[in-house]
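Reviewers of the previous submission asked for a worked example of the structure-prediction workflow described in the proposal, so we include one complete record here. The input consisted solely of the amino acid sequence. No template or homolog information was supplied to the procedure at any stage.
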Amino acid sequence: MLSNADAVAAEDTRITGRLLSHYGITRRLIAVHEHNERRVTGQVLGLLAEGRSIALVADAGTPAISDPGALLIAAARDAGYPVTPVPGANAAVAALSASGFAAPHFLFYGFLPARPGERKRALAAVAAIPYTLVFYEAPHRVVATLGDLRAALGGGRRIVMARELTKLFETIRACTLAEAAAWMAENPDRRRGEFVLIVEGADTPATDPGAARRILEALLGELPLSRAVELATKLSGAKKNTLYRMALEMKKGPRRGR
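From that input alone, the workflow returned the following structure tokens.
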């Protein structure tokens, strides 16, 4: 695919340049990362308008999955150009396939909030969900996140910590949340690299209003009202009409006194 493309849009042109050089491929490289994606989208659309084909790659994963590319893909599709996925490395699915968790459903959360308070609120919102939970985490936050996971979900839940998947120092460790921090602390090298944290889901669906409200609040921050209510109904076990009324109240916000 790279050798057939007229140009390659890359998250980091230096890394992709080494890949192309290894295979003897000479192509124009266009940097597309989180800081310039909106600006460079017009340039890429201009090349597509000339009939050129563009390959989009991420450094170590799949474009648009917690990596740049979603804005460019949406703009290309809206302009009428076909977007064709090429199967490749994806850390979440790779880790999930090696986790041994047999649950039929999983929730890919991606990166948790960096701020401790926001991270704790996010974990509280998903604590009662009966689906396997899949998170990405950076090395400088992984210890704090493991502590917050234990506090929010309990030490008895199983976790699989997958580090540097498909790379030289790949490590996969399965244990309970109560054991995770101690294992991580045994060797500072274990805290290096990018992480996928897979945690087993809650035993039963949430049925109490407080948990349902937290789930709905988290979903409303990311999705349209109707879709948020639909998913919250499935995840919490609460009645759809009840959650719909709750969502409308949340959207209105607190009433101000005169």
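The first strand starts at residue 7 and ends at 10. We consider this example representative of the routine output the project will generate in years two and three.
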